[in-house]
Each structure stands twice: as structure tokens, then as C-alpha cells.
């Protein structure tokens, strides 16, 4: 599914205002869902007492790792969550920022380490191990 947004308002900003208000918390990682080019991590998006599950998909076989929200069974609920809580549309650029921010967390680095053990060819040059990550 491709996404195209035509923005007619000149007041568009590259990062939506809700991005910094949403907490992204690790929920689940299943290495069996991944393949050598894609990493999936299930997270909870939280705002106040409201939360929704979504999957981040990370593309691994490029020069840099980048991610977004996977279009799957959770996507529509995630889109509705953003509209209900923030009265804004979920843009692809927002998804990429959320996924990128999550990459800086310990849970993401632990998932990436597990992924690297199973698929070392695409990941070895992109992962930076720290002593805290060693098993």
C-alpha cells in the first residue's frame, strides 16, 4: 500500500506536534516474524491513560536502518488512536520519527542484537555493541 498526502496548507511542519507527547514502550519481540531484511518490534503507543499496540518495521538491508509503522492488523487502530487523541492525521514522516526515536532505546538494541545473531550478514556493520548489551 502506498501513501500519498497532498498538503494544500502552507503551515505544514515536518514533525507533527503530537510526536513528543506520545510515549513509545516496548511490548514484544518475536524473531520468527523477521527475515534477513526486516525487523519487526511490537510497541505500545501511550498518551495519558490511552494506549494502542503497533508494530514497527525496520528495513535492515540498506546503508542505514530506517523504520515506520507496519501496515498490518494494528495499523488502523493506531491511525484512529492518533486522530482521537491529537486530532491529527498520522503521516508517514511521523511514523519514521517514532520508529527512529525507538531505535535509541535499550529494548530496541536488545532486539537488534538477537536479530544480528540470526542474520549477521546484513547487520554486522550497523550494530555497535556496548558492554551493557553483551550477554
Secondary structure tally, helices: 4
Low confidence ranges:
1-13, 128-135
What is the CA-based Rg, rounded?
16 Å
Form type: elongated
Structural class: alpha+beta
Average the pLDDT over all residues and give the rounded result: 85
- Span between N and C termini? 39 Å
Percent in strands = 15-25%
The number of E-state strands comes to 4
| Element order: H for helix, E for strand | EEEEHHHH
Main β-sheet, spatial strand arrangement: 1-2-3-4
Topology:
Elements (H helix, E strand, L loop, with lengths): L22 E6 L9 E10 L2 E10 L6 E4 L5 H12 L5 H11 L3 H13 L1 H4 L12
Antiparallel strand pairs: 1-2, 2-3, 3-4
What attributes characterize this protein structure?
elongated, disordered N terminus, disordered C terminus
Describe this structure in words.
With 135 residues, this protein is an alpha+beta fold. Helix content is 30%, strand content 22%. The protein contains 4 helices and 4 strands; from the N terminus they run E-E-E-E-H-H-H-H. The protein has helices spanning 75-86, 92-102, 106-118, 120-123, and strands at 23-28, 38-47, 50-59, 66-69. A 4-stranded antiparallel β-sheet has the order 1-2-3-4. Strand 2 (38-47) and strand 3 form a beta hairpin. The longest helix has 13 residues, at 106-118. Residues 1-13 and 128-135 have low confidence and may be disordered.
